[in-house]
Amino acid sequence: MSWRCSGRSNAELVENMFRAELIRSPRVKAALLRIDRGNYVRPGTDAYADSPQPIGCSVTISAPHMHAECLERLEPYLQPGDNALDLGSGSGYLTAAFQHLVGPQGKAFGIEYVEALVPWSITNLRRDGFGKELDDGSLQLIAGDGSLGWPDKSIKFSAIHVGAAAPALPKPLVDALAAPGRMIIPVGVANQLLMQVDKDEDGAVTARELTAVRYVPFHMKHTEVFTP
Ligand code: SAH
Questions:
Q1: Whether the Cβ atoms of residue 114 and residue 218 lie closer than 8 Å to each other
Q2: Phi/psi at 195 (nearest 5 deg)?
Q3: pLDDT in tens, 131-180
Q4: What backbone phi and psi angles, to 5 degrees, belong to 212?
Q5: Is a pLDDT exceeding 90 seen at residue 19?
Q6: Which of 77, 126, 145, 189 suits a disulfide with 158, CB 3.0-4.6 Å?
Q7: pLDDT for position 1
Q8: Angle, nearest 10°, between helix axes 26-34 and 10-19?
């Protein structure tokens, strides 16, 4: 039961998720110990509760166990030097985790639809000690429609995460996946499923349903849909 993982500190929250086997990889555990969720929530909310918290503009930071699930799935594709893309970056928390995992030679980029959240998320990242990465461009957060992918189409990403539920698979994001690469994306409107989309070395794409989830909608009005 995920709510049992709540803690009084970041370390306690992470330890509880590790004990409950929601976190299994030592690299994911180290990243979540390094990134303090307390720097990514609004004052007066419960940073170390294993539940979503309001971050303003009708948006929530996702629950820690959902962040852990997505990181565990993406970890093999978040190796030092890899490129990672986080769509619906919100608080900046997961983008920070991506940056920590891909290291100084890698890149972690985020796109957030609600413009007002972007400067706040950048403040969060600086407070959490990511000033150097923001300054050298290895960590970037921009406002925009993430369903269209990162503006520079020449960059391919071995890990892509979508933090909101898409009505269908966005083609620009499948195109932006490196070969090999993996995307974790909730898909659906009334009934949503977390999907794992894998691209192999030869560019072949397979999609697998993981689990039922509930996310806010991912805007994709002008986006071509991927059809296998
Ligand atoms: N993962 C983030 C936020 C999750 S909430 C965190 O944990 O802090 C999902 C976010 O997706 C919201 O901030 C919403 O504004 C954003 N979103 C929805 N559609 C989007 C789109 N097309 N492009 C970028 N962001 C989008």
A1: no
A2: -115, 145
A3: 999 999 999 999 999 999 999 999 999 999 999 999 999 999 999 999 99
A4: -75, 140
A5: yes
A6: 77
A7: 46
A8: 160
Specify the residue with its C-alpha closest to ligand 1, atom 10: 88
Q: Is 112 in the pocket of ligand 1 (CB under 6 A)?
A: yes
Nearest CA to ligand 1 atom 11: 88
Query: Which of the following is catalytic: 6, 9, 51, 62?
Result: 62
> What are 69-119's pLDDT values in tens digits?
999 999 999 999 999 999 999 999 999 999 999 999 999 999 999 999 999
Q: What spacing in Å lies between the alpha carbon of 168 and ligand 1's midpoint?
A: 16
Asked if residues 162 and 173 have their Cβ atoms less than 8 Å apart, the reply is yes
- What confidence score (pLDDT) does residue 2 get? 54
Ligand 1 center–CA 218 separation, angstroms: 7
Q: What percent of the chain has pLDDT over 90?
A: 96
Distance (Å) from CA 56 to ligand 1 centroid: 12
In short, whether 172's Cβ falls inside 6 Å of ligand 1 is no
Q: How far is CA 131 from CA 63, 81, 124, 126, 138, in A?
A: 25, 19, 10, 5, 10
62 an active-site residue? yes
202: CA distance to ligand 1 center in Å? 31
- Pairwise CA distance, residues 132 & 39, whole Å: 17
Indicate the pTM of the whole model. 0.97
